[in-house]
Fold this sequence. Notes:
- This protein is mainly α.
- The chain has a domain of 128 residues.
- It contains seven helices and no strands.
- The radius of gyration is 19 Å and the shape is elongated.
Amino acid sequence: MKLNFVLIVVLILFLILFSFKLEFFNEEYYDGDVKLNLINYFKDKESLNQENYSEEEVTHLGDVKNLVKKGLILFYILLIVLILNLVYLMLKKEFLILGNSLFITGIITIGLFLILLLFNFSFLFTIFHKILFTSNYLFPSDALLINLFPQEFFYDVFKKIALNIIIGSISLILLGLGIKNVRA
């Protein structure tokens, strides 16, 4: 089976970041002035209103903003590489490689998601924060961040991101099969 490994890796990462981007910037989650200020802060539309946050919370939010910026830069780089790769495969009429690669990407992504299901969310949440953040992410129960975004909020967002990834993966599998069958 001929595959394009660059396309597979780029698509997996792109699908994850795209799903994250859809949910992270979903303004339904940001009702009220404090939450709206926060999303606008992450979008560089306004500065963070720091008066309600502790120093540790402000530091953590700065780290989140930096991570979001880096994630968006990676997202757009992946988008460019993805488009170039797809154009190249289409111009070369490598439809079998394209179909196989889309199909395998969907299978691998679902497999990775199924592996994640072996762990509970609290464990994944902790690992995520330990790997990606240098600042404290554990705040007292009366902290504004904890009250605005309890762990249940992140669990719900995680489920929506996972659903987006599964839908995207199934779409890639079906698209891959369709391209392979049409071009066979």
